[in-house]
Amino acid sequence: MLKNYLDINIEVEKAIKEGKPVVALESTIISHGMPYPRNVETALKVESIIRDNGAIPATIAILNGKLKVGLTAEEIEFLGKEKNVVKTSRRDIPFIIANSLNGATTVASTMIIAALAGIKVFATGGIGGVHRGATETFDISADLEELSMTDVAVICAGAKSILDIGLTLEYLETKGVPVVGFKTDELPAFYTRKSGFKVDYRVDCEETLAKALKAKWDLGLNGGVVVANPIPEEYAMDFDTITNAINNAVKEAEEKGIKGKESTPFLLAKVKEITKGESLESNIQLVYSNAAVGARLAVELSKLNK
Ligand code: PSU
Ligand code: MN
């Protein structure tokens, strides 16, 4: 039955069958998170970083109504260029399939498709969360609910302050989702290494992290884990510069009445514009760093499951 929907490329399918390390990657970051052609360049480089660190990359998207796990360079180019690609979260998947559309998968839907394929590790830039002002707007990303139920570890650079970081952490706590700091006690804030918020657990090596994941899922404690890996020091942004940019972006989004799924892409593009592209460079570098950690984690996890 799954075969009717799921299309896993040969290399990825073989790796999964043989218990080799595989890392899932999302496509919203390509279609809606970064401008062309940097998006395509980044997506391809991320795949090569994963290979350099001993794992097989599996970029996920919906193409012509098929759930694709593992894309060709041409398919990645298409997602980066084509305007008609729908940002696809959990609620959207059935309709993208039924209408044979192209969908760029968010963290939530990438987790769903990765889990269907049997992939446990997923590397990206940032997760969605509880937005600032959510007590009025109710804008809470479906990523958080997904993390509470789907067994995939998500390596990210923490939560950026377009979100309410404190409320995002409270939500994750309620839902039983561990937030792990990779070599840090403090949750990173995406563009910067610090946020002022502590993580639940600090882990200093991929092996310990893999053991924790295995224990969680062996025991039937369903759901994901947020692995927060701080942006490398040399690419981190100045705290005041980025804080200002985000505050202005959030204000403009409010004034323009930007809502729903448009909110995150609007804020990302605004922040890039205000920082004259500096935020994009940081964004790209932190994704590279997360890809390397994801690959090494997948390697350790595959050793434990042998
Ligand atoms: N944060 C980023 N870049 C992104 C996203 C978040 O720094 O591209 C994307 C991810 O795909 C994430 C989605 O899952 O935005 C969240 O959107 P929403 O808030 O509408 O759920
Ligand atoms: Mn939202």
TrEMBL record:
Coiled-coil regions, chain positions: none
Cofactor: Mn(2+)
Active site residues according to the UniProt entry: 26, 160
Domain of life according to the entry: Bacteria
Keyword match Transmembrane: no
Ligand binding (substrate): 87, 107, 141-143
Keyword Metal-binding: yes
UniProt remark on cofactor binding: Binds 1 Mn(2+) ion per subunit.
Keywords for this protein: Glycosidase, Hydrolase, Lyase, Manganese, Metal-binding
InterPro entries: Indigdn_synthA-like, PsuG
GO terms, molecular function: hydrolase activity, acting on glycosyl bonds
Positions contributing to Mn(2+) binding: 139
Catalysed conversion reaction: D-ribose 5-phosphate + uracil = psi-UMP + H2O
Quaternary assembly: Homotrimer.
Function: Catalyzes the reversible cleavage of pseudouridine 5'-phosphate (PsiMP) to ribose 5-phosphate and uracil. Functions biologically in the cleavage direction, as part of a pseudouridine degradation pathway.
UniProt record similarity statement: Belongs to the pseudouridine-5'-phosphate glycosidase family.
Listed name of the protein: Pseudouridine-5'-phosphate glycosidase
Lineage, top ranks: Bacteria, Bacillati, Bacillota, Clostridia, Eubacteriales
